[in-house]
Design a protein that fits this description.
Layout: E1 7-12, E2 17-24, E3 28-36, H1 38-42, H2 49-70, E4 80-86, H3 90-107, E5 111-115, H4 116-127, E6 135-140, E7 145-152, E8 155-161, H5 167-177, H6 184-192, H7 217-232, H8 239-264, E9 269-273, H9 280-293, E10 296-298, H10 302-305, H11 310-321
Parallel strand pairs: 1-4, 4-5, 6-9, 9-10
Antiparallel strand pairs: 1-2, 2-3, 6-7, 7-8
Helix pairs in contact: 2-3, 4-11, 5-6, 5-7, 5-8, 6-8, 8-9
This protein binds 5'-O-[(R)-(carboxyoxy)(hydroxy)phosphoryl]adenosine (KG4) and zinc ion.
The site of 5'-O-[(R)-(carboxyoxy)(hydroxy)phosphoryl]adenosine has 19 residues, from helix 5 and helix 6.
Length: 338
């Protein structure tokens, strides 16, 4: 307990961020330590799983110590240990999970396994103290693109997902084609502000009528083909225009499907989460449509959009108070369903 309230130590290591946090009563973030490996993976143009695992192993103990120290807590103050157990890179997940289990075994404190996507959604509870379910959620990151119906703190259902690339992955791949570097999302976000979104017509892929699924591999190829044909014709490419046109095509589909889902299922709140939730154009577009339809829009500040352990601590808190506790046989599940 901290200040007479429930304290969770949380660990996240599903991709390339080694993170630990201390949360009090789920929404009061006492620390949120993130050791990012972006600079290392940048050299390879994407996350290299083996390298990610090795760095998690080197950093995890220091990150946990720092999270406890910043929260002015010791393990004695902690009520439960929350940890991401999937989805993610198996070798990366295992490091966080083994650490959490070791703490649980050594201290006798309960272990609470958290689904990474559920964690992303919960980041919004930390940011917006008044937010309560039910609502419609859009989870957009480097690994996921999902429309999720959230009916309660521990209850959510995926209504749609990507059939190929995740949206952040598409941003990263297109950025590479345009020579913008890694991670591409923030770079496209920035340069697109100077471009004309109507300059190149990229196909909007809505799939079958009523489907809330996505497909982004076609537009990625579309950008590649456009760049190659312009080069072959000896024409100079306006990177800002291509970036803005790509982004507009992708976001038109995402915004339309998310708002349609909210209207259809009578949800008056849309909650955005994941790395791509910090995209400025996505925010502007959603704000505009939600304003017209009387839907309230929520998204976290950038540090809680990308991978972090505070969001896992919040999700673990709601599971813990509902008695949803795991034992030490909990295993990493790379394709964990929600
Ligand atoms: O949630 P996250 O940290 O990791 C995953 O769980 O995947 O998301 C990382 C992804 C990367 O693909 C990155 O390019 C993208 O989020 N991203 C953005 C922006 N900031 C990060 N994409 C578009 N616009 C941004 N401003
Ligand atoms: Zn994530």
């Amino acid at each position: 307990m901290i200040d007479g309230k429930i304290a969770i130590l949380a660990i996240e290591s599903s991709c390339d961020e080694t993170a630990a946090a201390v949360l009090v009563d789920g929404r009061d973030m006492r620390s949120n330590i993130i050791s990012s490996q972006i600079d290392i993976h940048k050299l390879y143009g994407g996350v290299v799983p083996e390298i990610a695992s090795r760095h998690h192993l080197e950093n995890i103990n220091g990150v946990v110590e720092e999270a406890l120290a910043e929260a002015e807590a010791t393990m004695d103050d902690i009520d439960a240990i929350g940890v991401t157990y999937g989805p993610g890179l198996v070798g990366a997940l295992l490091i966080g999970l083994a650490t959490a289990k070791a703490f649980a075994l050594a201290t006798g404190k309960p272990l609470v396994g958290v689904h990474h996507i559920h964690g992303h959604i919960c980041a919004n509870y930390i940011e917006h103290k008044d937010l309560e379910p039910p609502f419609m959620s859009l989870v957009v990151s480097g690994g996921h693109t999902n429309i999720v119906e959230v009916t309660d703190y521990n209850d959510c259902k995926i209504l749609g997902g990507t059939r190929d690339d995740a949206v952040g992955e598409a941003y990263d791949k297109v950025a590479r084609v345009l020579g913008l570097g890694y991670p591409g999302g923030p770079k496209i976000d920035r340069i697109a502000r100077e471009g004309n979104p109507d300059s190149v017509e990229f196909k909007r892929v809505f799939l079958e009528k009523g489907s809330l699924d996505f497909s982004f591999s076609g537009i990625k190829t579309g950008v590649l083909n456009y760049v190659n044909s312009e080069k072959q014709a000896g024409r100079e490419i306006n990177t800002a225009d291509v970036a803005a046109s790509f982004q507009q095509a992708v976001l038109d589909v995402i915004v339309t499907k998310t708002v349609d889902a909210a209207v259809e299922l009578k949800k008056d709140k849309i909650v955005v989460a994941g790395g791509v939730a910090s995209n400025s154009r996505l925010r502007t577009m959603l704000e505009e449509v939600c304003g017209k339809k009387g839907i309230r829009l929520y998204y976290p500040s950038p540090v809680l959009c990308t991978d972090n352990a505070a969001m896992i601590g919040c999700a673990a808190y709601y599971k813990y108070i509902a008695g949803e506790i795991d034992d030490l046989t909990l295993d990493a599940v790379p394709n964990l369903p929600l």
